[in-house]
Amino acid sequence: MIVVQPSVKLPGPDDVTRTTLPNGMTLLVRENWANPSVVVSGVLRGGSANETREQAGLAQFTAALLTRGTTYRTFEDIAETVEAVGASMSVGSGVYLSTFGGKCLHEDLPTLLELLGEVLHSPSFPPEQVERVRGQILNGIRQRETSTSAVARLAFWSTLYPAHHAFAWPLSGTRETITALTRDDLARFYADYYSPQGSLLIVVGAVHTPDLVRLAESTLGAWRATPRFPPLAAPWEETDSLVKLREVRRQSMNLPGKTQSDLILGMPGLSRRHPDHLPLAMMNSVLGELGPGGRLGTRIREDEGLAYYARSSLDAGLSAGPWYAYAGVSPRHVDRAVDLILAEMRRIRETPVAEAELADVKAFWVGSLPLDVETNEGVASELMNMELYNLGLDYLYRYPRLVNAITVNDVQAVAQRWLTPEAYVLAVAGPEGQ
Q: Is there a shared CATH topology between the 16-222 domain and the 249-430 domain?
């Protein structure tokens, strides 16, 4: 059993305060007076799952405009106020959640929370800023269209998921959808879905909890809004993937002038709350994460010298995301790299991993936990995960025991359940004729 005594105190039920503001926002506070800074991290229940394919990018476009002007301040005023105190502030959007937050010194927290409250409850969507942000998004899309890794990734997700699913289109949208969106579309999306009800605010750092609660109530707590439509919730009840694969689907994307091909090979996965998540994540670490890229990196990159990189990932979040392996290779080595990925998938399904190999993963997972919570940002991230996935505030204390309980048989069992070498999606982006 791997046992590591943490060098820092783990956040838990004894030093994290949870309260609910009158507007329905849940507040978690953890004091840390060893650091003069304060980290603020929040989420709203809304994102691209609320948009249509024809308006792809609407959620992210809307989020980007919130800090570009309010009823009370211009974009320049907001930027100058943030910069004057050396703080940071941002608003963003994902599939199911929109995010907001920032960082500042203890004495500047009233200013940061006032600004966050203002951009969340009083955005003005200035027309000139709409066009400026539109140009920035379009520039990012043009860059995305020339990246083999980005093109392969989009091809993979759009081939794996049905056309009506938000996973099937890019968060930032397409040239056509972003060009067509209007200021009214952005303001309407905000009015329809942005609300403090069911939202989450986490504050970690040099704060006195009672004072912080009062400050949050007077700033973010002053935001009262009832959305026209409730934001779509992630399918919490989901115990299996939305997608069923029974065959191999291959998608090849040609990018003239490129010298490298990027490939992604994967299949449906699970959500963070699925009981198979922890052993499957450990299997993924063995297969494509630990060290130079786990077994995949060792076999494809180190031993065969075929890839610039070769790794794997498990995208388990609020709803079921895929497991996939990815690699950057010479175009002439694509098929060989695919064969090796499939061979390693079959090996981990058919042969239990060595006890020593599993022990290495456990030692890394348990040993890195204290490093994950050394900073206020790390603590805020862990608290966010514990709250979003209903893990409990004592999760970090239970974590080493949960990790150590996983056996080689558990790893093999989830590999057999979730890895399907006979049915997968393969997306490849590279030069013509690959």
A: yes
